[in-house]
TrEMBL record:
<keyword id="KW-0175">Coiled coil</keyword>
<dbReference type="InterPro" id="IPR036890">
    <property type="entry name" value="HATPase_C_sf"/>
</dbReference>
<dbReference type="InterPro" id="IPR003594">
    <property type="entry name" value="HATPase_dom"/>
</dbReference>
<keyword id="KW-0808">Transferase</keyword>
<dbReference type="InterPro" id="IPR036097">
    <property type="entry name" value="HisK_dim/P_sf"/>
</dbReference>
<dbReference type="InterPro" id="IPR005467">
    <property type="entry name" value="His_kinase_dom"/>
</dbReference>
<dbReference type="GO" id="GO:0005524">
    <property type="term" value="F:ATP binding"/>
</dbReference>
<dbReference type="InterPro" id="IPR004358">
    <property type="entry name" value="Sig_transdc_His_kin-like_C"/>
</dbReference>
<keyword id="KW-0472">Membrane</keyword>
<keyword id="KW-0547">Nucleotide-binding</keyword>
<dbReference type="InterPro" id="IPR017055">
    <property type="entry name" value="Sig_transdc_His_kinase_DctB"/>
</dbReference>
<keyword id="KW-0902">Two-component regulatory system</keyword>
<keyword id="KW-1133">Transmembrane helix</keyword>
<keyword id="KW-0418">Kinase</keyword>
<feature type="transmembrane region" description="Helical">
    <location>
        <begin position="277"/>
        <end position="297"/>
    </location>
</feature>
<keyword id="KW-1003">Cell membrane</keyword>
<keyword id="KW-0597">Phosphoprotein</keyword>
Amino acid sequence: MAARGRWILRVVALSVILIASAVIWYTNAFLTESFTESTRGRAEVRLALYTGNILTELQRTSVVPLLLARDPSLSGSLMAGDFSMTSQKLISAQAEIGAASIQLLDIDGRTVAATDRNKIGINLGQKPQFVDALRAKDTIFTVAARESGGYDFTYSRAVQVDGKTVGVILVSAELSKFERGWGGFADAVAVTDSSGIVILATEPRWRGKPLEEALALRPAQTAIGRAVRATFDWANSPPDAYVKGEAVMRNEARVPFRGWRIVSFTTFDSIRERVNAVLSLEIMGFALLLAAAFWFLSRQARNETAVFRRESAELRQLNARLQREIAEREKVQKDLAVAEQTLAQSSKLAALGEMSAAVSHELNQPLAAMKTYLAGARLLLQRRRAEEALSSFQRIDDLIERMGAITRQLKSYARKGGEAFEPIDVRASVSSALSMMEPTLRSGKVRITHTLPRGPVMVMADRIRLEQVLINLLRNAVDATKDVAEPQVEILLTAGETATLSVRDNGHGITELDNLFEPFYTTKKPGDGVGLGLAISSGIVNDLGGRLTARNAPGGGAVFEVQLPILQDRTRAAE
């Protein structure tokens, strides 16, 4: 027995380790996916915000060249060649608009006025923003690379006087400020033009390169970095990309301007921290459980050692007296019998607990109906309507008889039997179940529609158990329609090769069909149900030789079908 106990404890410890590994693996996969989706959602929201900021800045800057080109003071200075106050006017306009820079060029492309006075005198006659502005009548947008790095985003427009072009006004959009702002909310952000070249980026090395080529730029990894990356690849789903050798999540959105796209890269650090926090708690819990198991093992070993010592001392004394040895053996046999009785009693208590849960669930509906009838009888007696009150008491008596029948039938959950089977008209069972549910249906204002054949639909079944199945299905349908404005329950009985009874509601439907008939599985709030109704109903239908199925209705709601063998004339004669 001692060796068997040690083996049992070892199996339990191994089982705990295997269960812990499975739970930790599943928790890591589930939480990683969940947190990744939430992080991806936040990143997509930020991309929408960034896109709006870029468009707002571009649209605000695009109207500036048109306004300045129509300014009489600027066109007058170009005609007169007097630019003493022009730069100051451009500086004032820049302060009001918030543009990066403003330049005024004469017809030869020379800068005659600018917000940055260091640019005055520079000739831009060969630049595309000047050449394209002279050729077009509208405002021209140009993206040009700077020698110092980065890009200038310029709106240019020709300044005309009496239909004659006298100069060009250049207004640069301040898009570089977004790069600094993005760095505080995301790990990396890049904006590409229609050809895929990076024109804005939080990483300066990316500008001017195709995005995939820019992502390939990363420092050589150290041994620790390679180990971390290998661990990440093993414990997580494959990342979208790597930035600086670190796995990142990639999110991309379209900027509705000249085919631009914006891409953000977010690290998994925050996700791993949240997942690791939960995994740490789980590992700690399993570690404590294993520690308790090992402590129990060591305690049992000490107890066994003490027992062996006592037995050794007793054996030295029993060598001289054979009768004491026989007495000790009898004592061991008695202890074994007590242990067997204790084990049997534990099994009985476990069965009693399961039976109590079933009884509590099955008697809940009759008790609720009795409470309603008692309240109605009390009100009738107060109004001196004794005969109607007697009718309520008769219903209560019927319910008490039904509760007694239910308690007797609950024995079938532990021992199957068919002695109560008899030919039953399913239509009568439907009517009885509706009568049983009448108080609940009336209080819930549920519209009941039932379609029954004119002729009898006979099956071989237990009347009480079949009615209990129908009551469970009706109760679940009523509970499913609590949050519906116009609750409806449809009952359809058809007879063919089998008797098929369908109960359909217009509620929220079924979310987990696989676990629907598992014991103690329920979607109701605590106190509203224990999750035994459908499990018991499925067992009853199986005992009757039928099948209970469930599915979601195409128009919404759920449909439960009970299929039972039809009792044919030949079958009835055989019975």
